[in-house]
Specification:
5 strands; binds 1,3,4-trihydroxy-5-OXO-cyclohexanecarboxylic acid; alpha/beta; five-stranded parallel β-sheet; Rossmann fold
């Protein structure tokens, strides 16, 4: 079965209690369950991980090089990491960048993403549903 890697960056392990007015009350475990449901519905295996460490996320991108796709919410590294961008552009697997919040409606430093120019699509502000949309897109291609 083809697989899609769902990668989550720093502080997303705190979802549920972290700034619920911005990120909602769903936990990362809830999002994982939603992703697994979407995987079942679309016929792909889901690999789900979270790390607070940039290098671990880079290793996870390399490990997903032959996957059907990569869904990535890189958290704050989105706005800082050339290394994550280079990792995404260095593997053949297409990626979809997901953010729970609409980063363009927030502080200016969140408006720029190093990742957006090298991904297949960007989904902002759809909350946890954004992960589902990303899996549906990648699984269908
Ligand atoms: C986020 C948006 C980022 O700006 C922030 O640093 C996060 C979460 C989101 O999902 O809305 O950690 O990626």
């Amino acid at each position: 079965m083809e697989r899609i890697a769902v990668l989550n960056g720093p502080n997303l392990n705190l979802l549920g209690t972290r700034e619920p007015e911005v990120y909602g009350t769903q936990t990362l475990a809830d999002i994982e369950a939603l992703c697994r449901e979407a995987g079942q519905a679309t016929g792909v295996e889901i690999e789900f991980m979270q790390s607070n460490h940039e290098g671990e996320l880079i290793d996870a991108i390399h490990a997903a090089r032959d996957a059907k796709g990569i869904v990535i919410n890189a958290g704050a590294y989105t706005h800082t990491s050339v290394a994550l961008r280079d990792a995404l552009s260095g593997v053949p697997a297409p990626a979809v960048e997901v953010h729970l919040s609409n980063t363009h409606a927030r502080e200016e430093f969140r408006h720029h993403s190093f990742l957006s120019p090298v991904v297949r699509a960007v989904i902002l502000g759809a909350g946890a549903q954004g992960y589902r949309f990303a899996i549906e897109l990648l699984a269908g291609e």
